[in-house]
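Write out this protein's structure.
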Amino acid sequence: MHWSKRILCFVMLMVSACAHADYCIEQWACVEVDTHHEGRYVFWLVNAKPYPFTATLVVKGNNLTDGKRNNGRYEVTRVVDGNERIRVLELTTMHSHKPSSYSDDFFWSPGDMHARHDDNAIYYKPFAPGQHYPIVQGFGGRYSHTGSSRYAVDFAMPVGTPVHAARAGMVIDIESRHSRGGPSRRYARFANYVVIMHDDGTTGEYYHLKQHGVTVSEGQRVSAGDLLGYSGNTGFSSLPHLHFAVYRARPFGNFESLPFRLSR
C-alpha cells in the first residue's frame, strides 16, 4: 500500500566532457560539474535545503581518469548536510588529442545513511488520543510490507481522520495536491504525505493523506501529538488508510525500514 517516491529519484545524464552540466532534483539535491580548467572536470554535490540527504554519483568516463584508476567507472556515496556543497570527484583527460565524454547516474534519498535509530523511543499512535483505528497491515505484511517497507503499519481510517505526529521532529517534505489513488503501483506517484526528520536522523513518513489535507509546512518543528493533516486514500492504496513507517536513507536512492514501538 506504500511506494515511496524516493526510490525513483535518480537522473542519468550524458554529455561531452567539454559541456557544463548542472542540475537539481526537486530543488533540493543538485549536481554541479566545474569545467573552468581545460581537461579537468570537478564534480560537486550540493544541498539546496537545510536537511541532509544521502547521494550516490556514478560517472562513466571515456578518456577520463581520476589519477588512480582508468577503468572508466567512478562511484561515490556521500551524506550531504543541509545547505552544504561538497567536492566528490575530479577527472582529467588522459589523451588531449582524443575526444572525451562522460555519463552520470545520480541517486539520492532524504536523510542520513549513518543515522542511528533511538531504539528507546516510544512512538505515539498517529491519531488523536482516545481514538482507535484497526491495523489492517503490520510488520511484514504480505501485501506490500516487505523489503524496504518491512516495518510499516497501516491503520484503517475514514477519509478526513486527523493524523497526529507519532514523534517530534522537523517537517522536511510534504505533498498534498493529488486526488488519485488505487490498488496498483501505477498510482504510487499520486500519494500525499508528510515526512518528518527525527532528532536521530531517521524519518517518520505518513502516507495516503487526502488532497489538500496537510496542515504543516516544510521547515516546521512539530512535537509528538501535533496535528499533521487528514487521512485519505491517495497513491498506491487499496482502501482509505494511513501508512506510517520509520526509515533510514541508504545509498543508490534506497531506504531501510526500521522497527519501532508504538505506545499503548
